[in-house]
Amino acid sequence: MKFGYFDRKAREYVITRPDTPTPWINYIGSGNYGGIVSNTAGGYSFHKDPQNRRVLRYRYNSIPMDRPGRYIYIRDAVTGEYWNPGFQPAQTKLDSYCCKHGMGYTNIEGEYKGITADVTYFVPDDRDFEIWLVKVKNRLNIKKNIQIFSYAEFCFWEAILDQQNVDWVQQINQGHYKDGIITWHPHHIDKAAAFIATGEDVSSFDTNLETFIGKYRSESNPIAVEQGACSNSISLRQNGVGALCLDIELEKGEEKEVVFVVGYAEDKSKLKKKIKEYLSPKGAHAALERLNEYWENYTSKLSVETPDEEMNLFLNTWNQYQCKTTFNWSRFVSLYQLGLARGMGIRDSAQDTLGVMHTIPEEAKGLIIKLLKCQYTDGRAYHLFFPLTGEGGSGDAPVKKFDWYSDDHLWLILAVNAYLKETGDFEFINEKVLYNDKETEATVLEHLNMALEFTANNLGPHKIALAGRADWNDTLNLDIGLGVAESVFTSMLYCRAALEMIEICEFLVKKNEVKKYKKMFEEMKKAINDTCWDGEWYKRAFDDYSNPLGTKEAKFGKIFINSQSWAVLGNVADGEYARKCLDSVEKHLNTKYGIVAMYPAYTEYDKTKGGITTYPPGTKENGGIFLHTNPWVMIAEIMLGNGDKAFKYYKQIMPAARNEEADHLEVEPYVYPQNILGKEHPQFGIGRNSWLSGTAAWNLVASSQHILGVRAGFDRLIVDPCIPKNWEGFKVKRVFRGATYLIEVKNPNGVNKGIEKILVDGKKSDKIPVFSEGTTHDVLVIMG
Ligand code: GLC
Description:
Layout: E1 4-7, E2 12-15, E3 25-29, E4 33-38, E5 45-47, E6 54-56, E7 71-76, E8 82-83, E9 96-101, E10 105-112, E11 115-122, E12 129-138, E13 144-151, H1 159-164, H2 166-172, E14 173-178, E15 181-186, E16 193-198, E17 204-208, H3 209-213, H4 223-227, E18 240-250, E19 255-265, H5 271-275, H6 281-299, E20 302-305, H7 309-329, E21 344-345, H8 346-352, H9 361-372, E22 384-385, E23 392-393, H10 411-423, E24 432-434, E25 441-443, H11 444-456, E26 486-487, H12 488-507, H13 511-531, E27 541-542, E28 548-549, E29 559-560, H14 562-569, H15 575-589, E30 590-591, E31 594-595, E32 598-599, E33 625-626, H16 630-639, H17 643-652, H18 662-665, E34 673-676, E35 687-690, H19 695-707, E36 710-712, E37 716-719, E38 729-736, E39 739-746, E40 755-760, E41 763-765, E42 768-769, E43 776-783
Parallel strand pairs: 39-43
Antiparallel strand pairs: 1-2, 2-9, 3-4, 4-5, 5-6, 7-8, 7-13, 9-10, 10-11, 11-12, 12-19, 13-18, 14-15, 15-16, 16-19, 17-18, 20-38, 21-22, 22-23, 24-25, 26-27, 27-28, 29-32, 30-31, 33-34, 34-35, 36-37, 37-42, 38-39, 40-41, 40-43
Helix pairs in contact: 7-19, 8-10, 9-10, 10-12, 11-12, 12-13, 12-14, 14-15, 14-16, 16-17, 16-19, 17-19
């Protein structure tokens, strides 16, 4: 069963019924002000940080689900009937309903008894506020008098206190109204305010939530809407609402547009001026037009035409779009990660930069610098940081012996290398950046050097990396206080990071560094191969008693995915080992919905393994399909030249391919979820945690840079595809350092990999050079 379809031309996903299995959401805003909008207008918003400056409230685990939201009530002034274009919260059965999630905006349209209403939600021009552009139309042959009520439920800005200290918060919340604007702020802050505004004549308003809703009612049947007027309440305490009521006359066939603006103002005395141009429908439309242009431009740096329609759909639109969202919000703000306590992840954000590097490298650099500032002088890093306060922290895994994760710092090397290749901005490595003590400065290269050093200085009994609190797998908490648990995965990631340092330093002719990193790489590679090969695959870790995880003899967790893919990605596995360990992945871990994280899953809690054993078999890291890990296997297969298998792995996790059975997938088919229940779970195939996952960036990397093989090099563009044999070719348009490359790849001999010749602007060439900005070039690649 399906709930909607892809409108490829409009670049929208169109949801055709409101009762999706989970709320299917979209994001508005660009990382500054923004929030979440579901297909029934549920969701919340915040300014810069969902924890420290939440603007609109959301009730987690709410029943009915997904409340509150940015609601518009339409009321027939004569009959008193009322409804919402998004079905929620009044739940009036609509004559028609449709929600279009587009790039940076959501449009929800409903029709009831001859009146249609649609609302477009978006953040204009990266400002500190959002627009609700409402259009109502009278489709009847008689004149209608209707009322429009807005509903924006304000949250105390410190969202944790909003839940935690109701005593204080509800005494100090203050709501006011003047000239079409409701402002909302704590008593002791008089300059800044959250607000809702309209340019229309307001017939009544409420700033007090309890007054608007009425006793023992809910958003479904607010007393004010039922009675057809608000009470003009000024809120001196309690909870706040932005309820503005507009009386509208619609002649037969007439259509009218009104605008609400909701947001945050640093200085409320300047607010009116700031929002003025957006309060008119004309101003709002112009801003929406600019938003569309922004996304056109954003996605224009990479576009593909392959024989696979879903790949085209994802690479040209949805995968790029999801990557920007993970770049903005890491794993912090979704309907599963609640924008509380967690912050922006260091490892997560470092990987997220890989998904936007081809189009906004300068912004990626900005984030990389923030992450480098999270490093301690010994090279390790915080686990997370909060965007508004800039404070960092160490996450919530239990602390026994160590308070650091063994991998966070190493991802920084991959991010910086990708930035250098994309931009050629080699000066960056000499830029000085502070460590998290806010006193000690070092160059970017030195920061990266210290990242490697930290791991090299923290080895366990097998001479591989200590595990710390956990590695990439947050739930593998092997540290029980003895201080010897080791991570094979982190050791392999370290090898990859060392290789990338070698690559950078070789290009920059830094001979001593090259020598040093080669030695570091070789030593680690040897230690892994000496002690971690299990016969058909690599072990995953050693616990705090030095017992291995990921061996044939183990009852649970015989084989784990990441120590196979990264054995290849880190160039640890030579020859036969590489093929063998990837074959073991296919044999033991692959399923039709994706590759599971490990097998067999643990069935009981085990304190020597930690969080992973708290999950039932087949969920998340405990034998679930943790999608983030799948593109690593694709890349590993490609490194061994196996384009058919890589593509099979790519397609089996393609969400769009499950659109027809979306009732089973449950989550949005237009983005990758973080996980899908694995083969050992009775509900095998259900997706969870949509949107914020490293899957987005790594699938973009795997598909565009490895399957299609178009990737940045230090002094060139590389085209080195590894595709299914039955592809006859494909085309890619790629903007690289300001020049446009129109690439055509032909595969006349039906190979997976290999290049017979390259023609650049018609001339045979052994490399694809960097061209001057603004120029356009044809690249023809013949495989063979
Ligand atoms: C979550 C975390 C991420 C971690 C992954 C696997 O997605 O945000 O940092 O790598 O889980 O445990």
